[in-house]
Design brief:
With about 110 residues, this protein is mainly alpha-helical. It has four helices and no strands. The longest helix has about 30 residues. The N and C termini lie far apart (about 50 Å).
Length: about 110
């Protein structure tokens, strides 16, 4: 999918290329999560000696290792980045002009 985005660049619009890149990245994240789930949880469920099996693992919502904690840990870097962006903006000139409602202008020579 990413090869299509790169090779067909002249024929695709910017929003379509961005959407295809987003879909490709989400599919990649899903694949990595699935692989890790398979290796980690699968490795914990079946012992190598096959002496015994563990019971099924179903994560609870509000446990220490539950779904809510996983979502909190996932969202925490985005919150920290938003706070840092408020304190130390990445593009100060663009942020100031966007707040004023004016278009971005080129610097004038003196």
């Amino acid at each position: 999918m990413l090869a299509i985005v790169v090779l067909m660049r002249p024929f695709l619009t910017d929003p379509l290329r961005n959407m295809m890149g987003l879909v490709a990245s989400l599919i990649l994240l899903l694949q990595v999560f699935s692989m890790r789930w398979n290796v980690v949880i699968g490795g914990q469920l079946f012992s190598k000696s096959m002496r015994g099996f563990r019971s099924n693992y179903v994560p609870e919502l509000f446990e220490k290792e539950g779904i809510a904690m996983a979502m909190l840990i996932f969202l925490l870097p985005f919150v920290v980045m938003a706070v840092f962006n408020r304190v130390l903006p990445l593009h100060e000139e663009e942020a100031g002009q966007a707040a004023a409602g004016g278009p971005l202008s080129k610097p004038q020579r003196v």
